[in-house]
C-alpha cells in the first residue's frame, strides 16, 4: 500500500465526510433546538439534489457554452435548489412538526417518519423512479496530480465550498443576533421564550438553514456522482445522522468532526487491506488498555470515602481493573458487597470485554492481512461505528455528558 | 371502570361502547373463521385469501411491535430484522439449500428462539439509550441484518434467496393450499392475541405502561426498567420470529428484498394507526392498512363496474381513473400521509388504549388521575427502590 493510495483515499474520505457534514449540520441543529430527530432531513437533501439536477437540465448547459455561462447556470441551479429546499423545510416544520411541539418524544419522531415516506413517494410521482442524470459537461472532469495521485478538481471544490459554508454558519451562530437566539433556544426553550425570544421564528430559521445546507450538499453529491435518485437521501441521511451522533448530537463542530471520521472510516475501511486496518485496532487497543489500567482506576480512587481510604483498599481497586473477570466473579458470588467495588467490577468487566473485542479484531485482521473488505459492507461499517459509539459514549465525541431532562 | 370520557363521545360511540367486549371478539372470530368459505362458495377470488394471509402476517408483526412501541414506548425501526431472522431460520433448516428438513414445531420454536436471542442481543446494550437513539440503533441493526443476509452468499444464497421451502406438516396435516395457511396463521394470531392480552394485564404489562408514561416515576415505584424493557424487546422479537417462520412456509421462497427498512416502517404505521398500546388497534390497523390498497383497486376496477356498468368511470379524467385502478403505486404515499395525519389529529389511534388516551389528551385531570392510580400505586407490596 503506497503513500499515493493512502493520500487519494484520504482526499476522497474527506470529500465524502464534508458532504455528510453538510447534511449532519441540519440534523444536529434541529436536535439542538428541539431535541428531536428530523427523520425527513434525508429526503430534504434528496429534494435539493433533484431540484439542482432538474434546473440544470432546463438551462440546457453544454460544452458549447462559454465557461462563464456554465458557471451562471450552475449558480442559478444552486440558488433555485436552495430556495426550493428551504421552502420545503419551512413547510414541513410549519405543517407537520409545529402542531406536535411539546408532545412526548416518540410522537414527533413518528410524524417525521411519515413525512419522510410521503416526500419520498411524492418525489417518485413527480420526478419518476429513475436516477436523474446531470449533463456531464457541468461536472468538470479535470484531475490534478498531487503527491503522485490523480485527484478530481471537484473534490477540492466540494471541500472548499463546505468549509466556506461551515465558517459562515459558525459566524451566524456565534456572532449574530439570531445565532444568539438559537443558542438560547437550544439551552432552554421556555426560558428563551420568557426572555422575549420568538422561539417559533428561531426554530423556523434553524430548519431553513439546515435545509439550505442540505440543498447545497444535494447539489454537490449530484455533481460528484453525476446522478441522484429519489431514495439517495435515505442512506445519506442515515450516515449523516450517524456522523452527528458520533460527534455529539446538538453540537455543531461535533457534526463536522464526526462526519470527517465517518467518511474516512468508510473509505479506509473498503480501500485499505486488512493488514493496514489492523493498526487502527492496535491503536484502539492501546488506548483502551491505557484507559482501563491507568485512567479508570485513578478516577475510581477519587470516589473512595474518607474513612475507607487505606492503601490496601486502593490497591484492591487497582487490582480490580487489572483482573476484571476474577473480581466480577468474586463480587457476583459475595454475599455482601461494597457498592464501589460492585460498580467498579462491572465497569472493569465492560472495559475488558471492549478490549478483548479490539484484540480479537486485530488478530483477525492480522491473519487476513492481504484481504480487503468488500465495498458492499461499507454501510455496515458506518452502522457499526454508530452502534459502538452510542453504546459506549452516547453523548458523542465532543458532546457533554448530559442528563436526560426530567 | 366508568370513564369520565363518556360524556364527550357521540351517541353512536356511546351505544357501541355499551356492547360487551366479548360480543365484538366472538363476532370477529366467527367472521374470520367463515371468511375462506366465501371462496369455497365461489363468491370470492382466491386473491382475497392471499390478501388476508398477508394481512394476518402483518397483524402478527403489528401485535409484536405494539409490545415495544405501544406498551413500552420504545420505537423500534428495525423490527423487520427479527422477522427476517425467523424467516431465514425456517428457510435454511427446511429447504434443499443446506439439505435440512426439520419439521414444523421445532422450527417454529427455533425461529422464535433465534429472533428472541437477537432481541436480547440488541436490547441488552441499547435499552439504556434514550428513545430516539434507540430508534436509530434498531434501524441500523435492521440494515446490518439485511446486509448480512444479502452478502453471506455461501449460506443465504444472497440476493437470489432461498427457494423451495418445504410445506409444513403439522401432526400429519400437510398445509399446502392458501385457505389452509389462512387457518394456520389465524390460529397463531388468536394464540398471540390471547397471550399478549394476558401479559398486558399482568404486572409486567403494567410495568411497561408505567415506563411509557413516565420512566422516572416508574423506576421510583420499584420497577426494574432495564429488565422490563428487555422483556418487552424479547417478547416482541419472538412474535416477529413466529411471523417470519409462518411467512417463509407460506411464501416457500424468501430473499432479502422482503425485509427492507420500509417493511419496518409499514408495521410502525399500522401500530400508530390502530392506536399505540392497543391490541385490537394493532389488529385493525394492520388489516386496514394492508388490505386498503387492494380494496380500493378492486372497488374501482371490479366491484363498482359490476354495479354501475363497466364504463362508469369513462367521463372521469384519466389521471383520476389511473389513480384508483393503479392504487398500488400510491400505497406508501397513503401510509406516510396516514401516519402524519393520525399523529397530528388523533394520536391515540383508531381504537385507543384507555391509558394512552389519557396521556394524549391532557385536558381531563380525572382520567390522568386514573392513570396514576392504576399504574403507579400498584407496587405497595414491593418497596424495592434500588432498581
Distance between the termini of chain A: 52 Å
Q: Average the pLDDT over all residues of chain B and give the rounded result.
A: 81
Query: Looking at CATH, which topology of the largest domain in chain A would you report?
Result: ABC transporter involved in vitamin B12 uptake, BtuC
- Which architecture of chain B does the CATH hierarchy give at level 2? Orthogonal Bundle
- Runs of chain A with pLDDT <50, length 5+? 401-406
Shape category of chain A: globular
Number of strands of chain B: 4
Shape of chain B: globular
Kindly state the mean pLDDT of chain A as a whole number? 82
Task: Strand order, main sheet of chain A: write it out.
Answer: 1-4
Number of helices of chain A: 15
- Elements of chain A, N to C (H/E): HHHHEEEHHHHEHHHHHHH
Find the structural class of chain A using helix and strand composition. mainly alpha
N/C terminus separation of chain B: 31 Å
- CATH C-level class of chain B is Mainly Alpha
Q: In angstroms, what is the radius of gyration of chain A?
A: 25 Å
Rg of chain B: 22 Å
How much beta of chain B, percentage-wise?
under 5%
Task: Give a verbal description of the structure.
The complex is a heterodimer of chains A (406) and B (387). The longest helix of chain A has 32 residues, at 3-34. Residues 401-406 of chain A have low confidence and may be disordered. Chain A has helices at residues 3-34, 41-59, 67-97, 106-127, 153-175, 177-187, 189-194, 199-225, 232-247, 252-271, 274-301, 311-322, 324-333, 339-367, 378-392, and strands at residues 132-133, 143-146, 149-152, 227-228. Chain A has a two-stranded antiparallel sheet with strand order 1-4. Chain A has two domains: 3-272, ABC transporter involved in vitamin B12 uptake, BtuC, CATH 1.10.3470; 275-371. Chain A is mainly alpha-helical and 406 residues long. Chain B is an all-alpha fold. Chain B has a single domain (4-376), classed as Orthogonal Bundle (ABC transporter involved in vitamin B12 uptake, BtuC), CATH 1.10.3470. In chain B, 70% of the residues lie in helices and 2% in strands. Chain B has 17 helices and four strands. Chain B has helices spanning 11-18, 21-40, 46-71, 80-93, 104-126, 131-151, 153-156, 178-200, 203-213, 215-220, 225-251, 261-274, 279-308, 318-325, 331-345, 354-360, 365-376, and strands at 94-95, 100-101, 169-170, 173-174. The radius of gyration of chain B is 22 Å and the shape is globular. The model of chain B is unreliable at 1-7 and 377-387 (pLDDT under 50). Chains A and B meet through helix 4, helix 9 and helix 15 of A and helix 6, helix 12 and helix 15 of B.
Amino acid at each position: 500500500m503506497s503513500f499515493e493510495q493512502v493520500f487519494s483515499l484520504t482526499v476522497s474520505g474527506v470529500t465524502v465526510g464534508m458532504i455528510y457534514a453538510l447534511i449532519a449540520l441540519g440534523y444536529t441543529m434541529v436536535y439542538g433546538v428541539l431535541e428531536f430527530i428530523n427523520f425527513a432531513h434525508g429526503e430534504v437533501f434528496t429534494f435539493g439534489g433533484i431540484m439542482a439536477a432538474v434546473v440544470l437540465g432546463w438551462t440546457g448547459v453544454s460544452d458549447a457554452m462559454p465557461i462563464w455561462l456554465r458557471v451562471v447556470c450552475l449558480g442559478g441551479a444552486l440558488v433555485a435548489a436552495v430556495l426550493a429546499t428551504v421552502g420545503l423545510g419551512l413547510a414541513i416544520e410549519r405543517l407537520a412538526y409545529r402542531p406536535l411541539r411539546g408532545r412526548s418524544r416518540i410522537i414527533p419522531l413518528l410524524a417525521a417518519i411519515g413525512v419522510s415516506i410521503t416526500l419520498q413517494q411524492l418525489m417518485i410521482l413527480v420526478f419518476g423512479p429513475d436516477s436523474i442524470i446531470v449533463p456531464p459537461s457541468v461536472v468538470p472532469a479535470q484531475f490534478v496530480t498531487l503527491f503522485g495521485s490523480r485527484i478530481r478538481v471537484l473534490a477540492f471544490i466540494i471541500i472548499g465550498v463546505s468549509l466556506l459554508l461551515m465558517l459562515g454558519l459558525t459566524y451566524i451562530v456565534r456572532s449574530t443576533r439570531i445565532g444568539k437566539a438559537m443558542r438560547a433556544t437550544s439551552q432552554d426553550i421556555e426560558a428563551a421564550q420568557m426572555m422575549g425570544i420568538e422561539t417559533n421564528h428561531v426554530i423556523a430559521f434553524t430548519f431553513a438553514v439546515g435545509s439550505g445546507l442540505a440543498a447545497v450538499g444535494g447539489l454537490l453529491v449530484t455533481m460528484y456522482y453525476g446522478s441522484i435518485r429519489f431514495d439517495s437521501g435515505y442512506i445519506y441521511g442515515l450516515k449523516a445522522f450517524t456522523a452527528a451522533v458520533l460527534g455529539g448530537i446538538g453540537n455543531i463542530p461535533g457534526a463536522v468532526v464526526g462526519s470527517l471520521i465517518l467518511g474516512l472510516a468508510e473509505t479506509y475501511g473498503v480501500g485499505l487491506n486488512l493488514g493496514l486496518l489492523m493498526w487502527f485496532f492496535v491503536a484502539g487497543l492501546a488506548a483502551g488498555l491505557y484507559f482501563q489500567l491507568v485512567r479508570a482506576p485513578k478516577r475510581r480512587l477519587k470516589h473512595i470515602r474518607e474513612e475507607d481510604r487505606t492503601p490496601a483498599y486502593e490497591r484492591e481497586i487497582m487490582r480490580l481493573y487489572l483482573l476484571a473477570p476474577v473480581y466480577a466473579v468474586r463480587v457476583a458470588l459475595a454475599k455482601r458487597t461494597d457498592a464501589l467495588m460492585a460498580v467498579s467490577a462491572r465497569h472493569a468487566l465492560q472495559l475488558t470485554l471492549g478490549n478483548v473485542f479490539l484484540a480479537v479484531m486485530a488478530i483477525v485482521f492480522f491473519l487476513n492481512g492481504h484481504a480487503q473488505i468488500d465495498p458492499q459492507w461499507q454501510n455496515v461499517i458506518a452502522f457499526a461505528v454508530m452502534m459502538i459509539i452510542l453504546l459506549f459514549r452516547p453523548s458523542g465525541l465532543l458532546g457533554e455528558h448530559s442528563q436526560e431532562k426530567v | 371502570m366508568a370513564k369520565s370520557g363518556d360524556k364527550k363521545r357521540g351517541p353512536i360511540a356511546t351505544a357501541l361502547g355499551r356492547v360487551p367486549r366479548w360480543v365484538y371478539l366472538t363476532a370477529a372470530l366467527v367472521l374470520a373463521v367463515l371468511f375462506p368459505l366465501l371462496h369455497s362458495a365461489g363468491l370470492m377470488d382466491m386473491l382475497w385469501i392471499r390478501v388476508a394471509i398477508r394481512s394476518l402476517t402483518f397483524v402478527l408483526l403489528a401485535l409484536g411491535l405494539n409490545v415495544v412501541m405501544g406498551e413500552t414506548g420504545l420505537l423500534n425501526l428495525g423490527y423487520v430484522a427479527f422477522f427476517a431472522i425467523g424467516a431465514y431460520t425456517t428457510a435454511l433448516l427446511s429447504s434443499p439449500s443446506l439439505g435440512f428438513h426439520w419439521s414444523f414445531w421445532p422450527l417454529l420454536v427455533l425461529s422464535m428462539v433465534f429472533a428472541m436471542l437477537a432481541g436480547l442481543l440488541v436490547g441488552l446494550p441499547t435499552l439504556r439509550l434514550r428513545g430516539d437513539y434507540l430508534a436509530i440503533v434498531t434501524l441500523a441493526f435492521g440494515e446490518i441484518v439485511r446486509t448480512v443476509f444479502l452478502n453471506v452468499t455461501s449460506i443465504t444464497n444472497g440476493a437470489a434467496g432461498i427457494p423451495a421451502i418445504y410445506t409444513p406438516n403439522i401432526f400429519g396435516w400437510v398445509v399446502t393450499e392458501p385457505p389452509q395457511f389462512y387457518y394456520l396463521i389465524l390460529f397463531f394470531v388468536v394464540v398471540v392475541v390471547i397471550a399478549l392480552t394476558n401479559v398486558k394485564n399482568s404486572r409486567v404489562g403494567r410495568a411497561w405502561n408505567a415506563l411509557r408514561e413516565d420512566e422516572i416515576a416508574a423506576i421510583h415505584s420499584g420497577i426494574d426498567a432495564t429488565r422490563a424493557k428487555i422483556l418487552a424487546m424479547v417478547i416482541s422479537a419472538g412474535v416477529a420470529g413466529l411471523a417470519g417462520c409462518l411467512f417463509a412456509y407460506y411464501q416457500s421462497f424468501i430473499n432479502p428484498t422482503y425485509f427492507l427498512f420500509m417493511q419496518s416502517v409499514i408495521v410502525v404505521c399500522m401500530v400508530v394507526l390502530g392506536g399505540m398500546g392497543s391490541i385490537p388497534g394493532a389488529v385493525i390497523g394492520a388489516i386496514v392498512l394492508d388490505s386498503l390498497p387492494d380494496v380500493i383497486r378492486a372497488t374501482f376496477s371490479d366491484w363498482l363496474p359490476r354495479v354501475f356498468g363497466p364504463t362508469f368511470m369513462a367521463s372521469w379524467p384519466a389521471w383520476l381513473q389511473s389513480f384508483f385502478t393503479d392504487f398500488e403505486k400510491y400505497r406508501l404515499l397513503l401510509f406516510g400521509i396516514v401516519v402524519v395525519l393520525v399523529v397530528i389529529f388523533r394520536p391515540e389511534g383508531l381504537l385507543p388504549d384507555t391509558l394512552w388516551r389519557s396521556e394524549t389528551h391532557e385536558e381531563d385531570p380525572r382520567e390522568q388521575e386514573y392513570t396514576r392510580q392504576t399504574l403507579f400505586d400498584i407496587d405497595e407490596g414491593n418497596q424495592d427502590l434500588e432498581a
